[in-house]
Amino acid sequence: MKHRIEFPYAVALVMCALGSGCSTSPAGGSAPGSSPAPASGATGQWVSVAKADAQEAFVDPGSITIAGNMVEARAKQNFANPQPAAKKDKTYLSSQSTYRIDCSGRKVAYKDIQAFAAADLQGDVVQKATFYEKNLQWMDAPQSTVFGKLLDYACEHAPASMPAQPPG
After folding, report:
1. How far apart are alpha carbons 136 and 160 in whole angstroms?
2. DSSP line for 78-102
3. pLDDT band with cut points at 50, 70 and 90 for residue 9
4. Where are the domains of the chain?
5. Structure confidence at residue 43 (pLDDT)
6. 3-state secondary structure of 155
7. How far apart are alpha carbons 113 and 152 in whole angstroms?
8. Residue 110: CB partners within 8 Å, gap ≥ 6?
9. What is the DSSP letter of 135?
10. Which residues contact 39 (CB under 8 A, 6 or more apart)?
11. pTM, whole model, 2 decimals?
């Protein structure tokens, strides 16, 4: 039986690093409350939502949808330094993920993730995983973290039919 999650320990390490250890500042030095400028990406328009010394995170505004009482959004991260992949002697400099987002509970979970050898989702895919509804791993998204900035942007830009209140 082939498992869809091929690198659970690597994903757990990335989730921990992204979710709890990275404080952020507005990308590009934007003033508080202003919208960051969009940056073009391989799959659409990417908006920079969080920038830290080790990484920059972007959200594709066109990917933000409602999934039940949650928000779903696609994001990419570019890393300043190569990140270790699950495969021996492989590293990656960018990743693309689909997140399930609980706006009112300030939690995020990976639906899927792909890691690329080069920045901006270029180069070979060095690892990937898909997570199913019943085994999503929910993580806290404090405001001063990359996950927190991703959550804030997605919840603030969710379609009007969003049942949960965006963070305020």
Report:
1. 25
2. EEEEEEEPSSTT-EEEEEEEEEEEE
3. very low
4. 8-24+41-156
5. 46
6. helix
7. 20
8. 11, 15, 97, 98, 99, 100, 129, 131, 136, 137
9. G
10. 45, 46, 47, 48, 58
11. 0.72
**Gap between the terminal Cα atoms of the chain:** 45
Of the listed ranges 8-17, 112-121, 141-150, the least confidently predicted one is 8-17
Contact 100, 64 (CB under 8 A): no
CATH architecture for segment(s) 8-24+41-156: Beta Barrel (2.40)
Q: What is the largest CA-CA distance in the chain?
A: 51
Residue 125 to residue 60: CA distance in whole angstroms: 20
What six digits make up the tokens of 58?
Answer: 């972007």
CA–CA separation, 159 vs 126, rounded Å?
33
* d(C-alpha 146, C-alpha 128), whole Å: 20
| 48 in Cβ contact with 39 (< 8 Å) | yes
User: From the CB of residue 131, how many other CB atoms can be counted at a distance below 10 Å?
Assistant: 19
φ, ψ for residue 17 (rounded to 5)?
-65, -45
Exposed / middle / buried, residue 158 (Cβ in 10 Å: 0-12, 13-18, 19+): buried
